Amino acid sequence: MWMGAAISVRNVSKSYSLNQGGRFVALGNVSFEVRPGEFLVLVGPSGCGKTTLLDLIDGLSLADGGSILIDCVPVKGPGLDRGIVFQQYALFPWKTAKGNIEFGLEARGVPKAERAARAAHFLDLVDLADFGDRYPHQLSGGMKQRIAIARALSYDPEVLLMDEPFAALDAQTRERLQDETLRIWRQTGKTIVFITHSIDEAVYLGQRVLVMAAGPGRIVADIAIDIDRGADDLRATPEFVALRHRIWQLFHPEATAAARVVRDGVRQSTASEESRAS
């Protein structure tokens, strides 16, 4: 089994300029550690900075303050030690499933024979070995997302970042892909940071769940998920229900507060625009 990298997020803050002046603080002094090979889930309402935090870990943007380290090396931009899977599949429609997986490898100068071998390996890993010659329009939404996961894994990153990858899928497909993701994690030993709005998904997938709040984005709870994953219907067990309720009690008031922050921000923006117009 491969082993993923440790992640250290230390007092990270991030803000953005507003059109009407001032700044919006997306994250305020966020700190946490991720162990090598751990499956960590971030759950929280819209506007709490989950995606911003994931972008910072990936190096797609840089923090205003604090630091992020991958195996003790500061993150200063994107790197091959991290792979990311977005909510949208972002597959090239003119390339086959195999071609989509090979694309990044080709850009990195991996020889043709090795590209083909890696693509075949990861198609098999996501249980799509017989679909390598299919184009995206010939695949279901769940298949497309599995191809996106295979593409992210193809260059063997130590960290896999997943930004609500199943949010657009129907409930049955979402549950199947949750099981597939757990299987892939156990098989590869990658460090996974997964963000979601779904409390059920967070409890089902995570070894640990960080609950986030908005205004500014911050972590309000760090919860270890200690449940019997061998249960026939895990989601129906008392332990699962208790953890879901515990997180809901933290999540519900924060979601209400986040909605208020967004609403007040819209009102302030509207008032500012009306003032300028008059």
Automatic annotation (TrEMBL):
Where does the record locate the signal sequence feature?
none
- Entry annotated with the keyword Nucleus: no
Under SMART domains, the record lists: AAA (SM00382)
Keywords carried by this UniProt record: ATP-binding, Nucleotide-binding, Transport
Record's function text: Involved in beta-(1-->2)glucan export. Transmembrane domains (TMD) form a pore in the inner membrane and the ATP-binding domain (NBD) is responsible for energy generation.
Q: Which family does it belong to?
A: Belongs to the ABC transporter superfamily.
Q: What's the protein here called?
A: ABC transporter ATP-binding protein
Q: What is the species of this protein?
A: Bradyrhizobium denitrificans
